[in-house]
Amino acid sequence: MIHSPMDRAAAKTPDGVAKRIRGLSDRTIAWIFVAPTLFLLLAVNIFPLIWTIRLSFTNFRVNRPNNDVEWVGLRNYQRILNDPDVWATMQATAHFLIWTIVLQVLIGFTLAYLINKKFKGNDLWTTIIVFPMMLSPAVVGNFWTFLYQPQIGLFNYAVTFFTGGDPASFSMIGDVHLAPWAIVIADTWMWTPFVMLICLAGLRSIPDSIYEAAECDRASKWRQFWTITIPMALPFLMLAVLFRGIENFKMFDLVVQLTGGGPGNTTTLTSIDLKREAFEKWRTGYSSAYAVILFVTVFGLASIYVKALNKVKER
Amino acid sequence: MSFSVTDPSKGAKWFAGILVVAYAVITLIPLLWIVATGFKSPVDSIAYPPVVVFEPTLEGYVNLFTDRTRATDDMLEAAGPPTTWYDEIARERGTVISGPSRYGERFLNSVIIGFGSTALCMVLGTMAAYAFSRFKVPLKDDLLFFILSTRMMPPIAVAIPIFLMFRNLGLNDTHLGMILLYTAVNLSLSVWLLKGFIDEIPIEYEEAALIDGYTRFQAFYKVVLPQAATGIASTAIFCLIFAWNEYAFAVLLTSGTAQTAPPFIPTIIGTSGKDWPAVAAGATIFLIPVMVFTILLRKHLLRGITFGAVRK
């Protein structure tokens, strides 16, 4: 029975009418539609990236454009990889990455697990928990410096109230040992909800029937958690780690406002160091090489990780 | 049967509820503190121990929107008696209002650049997403991955060439330059998200329209666009939020005419040191739209932040 034009089309041409030519061909339309996007991305992303790579082989300084630009080969790269300060920065970034990811996954997953118990009003509380990650990291970072102020800051007050320390001499962002934790805490406050949301999606993707079957087999709750919940949610957890990893590897705004890299260089993450080289010391060639190294690192790590992620998904 | 073995017990629900509410309250405290600080006097804002109960004042907001100078006797005489309540607040602190601050301008820049880039991003993104969703584009998967990978680049890594390029084109520190830049930054998100939304619209609708004599373009804007409206709206809000909150490019590439609010808010200072109530007032005004959008976006939140990689 064929009634509508839609059915007729489906019946006559199995491929649909998508290939039918009327006016412009589909191929032409496809290119007209995709071209502006590709053009803009090439102009504002790829062209500058290629330019950065080119600059990385020179000693160009953007604040002295009239100087003779010399081709220095791989010297910039050599310098960066032999610079102990750069390695210290990388180490600080690695610590920041590890701790924020560990904390955010632990807290985020726990929250998702609890919210998944479907208690009354959980939608409202979930929305409230999600607020921080939607805000401007620079504005949030700036305000956290206020919370961390010795004596007058709320965070400072709360910590010294409970530990009995001296509020005037205790300072999260002024102390070389505490400052890295200050950025970890603020980042965790801001981004735990992100991990929570992804974990929640993972938990909700597990069909109830699996648990029912496990219940019939008299598997304990503990056993169910480790053999069903964790493995089924794992691809989602890994995806959260990937996104947080990429974002925190290029972290700039929150930390630059919070500590500005200090005290000393204790919270100087790679992108803050890069900004100093490029926009304070104006070593353009050097900082371009630095940028290329960072981009290759994040791209390489992300590619390897995505391969691992796909393997887990296939299981 | 409505009751299943996987339904948590009542006690478990209570326990979970209490823990989640506790976390939400802890999360909210810094936010509420920002809002409260905006309504404090400078003295209350740095009181020790921190005050929770205080007499609210709009001084922070007055200081946010005005520039003030220390009043000399001559200035007071020239200004005459205070004519408005905000003038009066300034006088109480021994200052006179010398003009509007730059916050209004910066906020307006955020609005222009945010909405401008979002609009452009939606036009380009919808077209590209439609093509990727419906046509056989050569190298489709590679192009899509390329579009996504542009998001992995640290902004600072490309800031110098963009700065040089913009300087040559006369786009440095202009609204147009920032709009183009933020559009490019957000295109990856909008193409990926919109492709997901358009994929969900059955292709049969368009086929029917084509049979009825519509051209491809007509089918696109008369059939597909209305169907994709919700998806386009939520994608637009995500792009707007990203452009609204962006800091790195704004601080590196703008200095005056096109600077948005995020680099400006931390630099707000009063006549004597950091004016926290004014900073808090600036932050509060800036945060409110995003919080409203978050509530509106609840359903699409996960898709938006993960480029559609995870669906709820």
From TrEMBL, chain A:
The chain crosses the membrane at residues 29-51, 96-115, 127-147, 178-203, 224-246, 288-306. It is a multi-pass membrane protein. It holds the Pfam family BPD_transp_1. InterPro entries: MalF_N, MetI-like, MetI-like_sf, Sugar_ABC_transporter. Residues 90-305 form the ABC transmembrane type-1 domain. It is found in: Cell membrane. The keyword Zinc does not apply. SUPFAM superfamilies: MalF N-terminal region-like, MetI-like. Keywords: Membrane, Transmembrane, Transmembrane helix, Transport. GO terms for cellular component: plasma membrane. Signal peptide: none annotated. GO terms for biological process: transmembrane transport. This is ABC transporter permease protein. It comes from Octadecabacter antarcticus 307. The lineage of its organism: Bacteria, Pseudomonadati, Pseudomonadota, Alphaproteobacteria, Rhodobacterales.
UniProtKB/TrEMBL annotation, chain B:
Keywords: Cell membrane, Membrane, Transmembrane, Transmembrane helix, Transport. Gene3D superfamilies: MetI-like (1.10.3720.10). GO terms for biological process: transmembrane transport. One of its GO terms (cellular component) is plasma membrane. It is found in: Cell membrane. PROSITE patterns: ABC_TM1 (PS50928). CDD domains: TM_PBP2 (cd06261). Residues 107-297 form the ABC transmembrane type-1 domain. The chain crosses the membrane at residues 12-35, 107-131, 143-166, 178-198, 219-244, 276-297. It is a multi-pass membrane protein. Its main location: membrane. It comes from the Bacteria. Signal peptide: none annotated. PANTHER family: ABC TRANSPORTER PERMEASE PROTEIN, MALTOSE TRANSPORT SYSTEM PERMEASE-RELATED. Belongs to the binding-protein-dependent transport system permease family. This is ABC trans-affinity zinc uptake system membrane protein. It comes from Octadecabacter antarcticus 307.
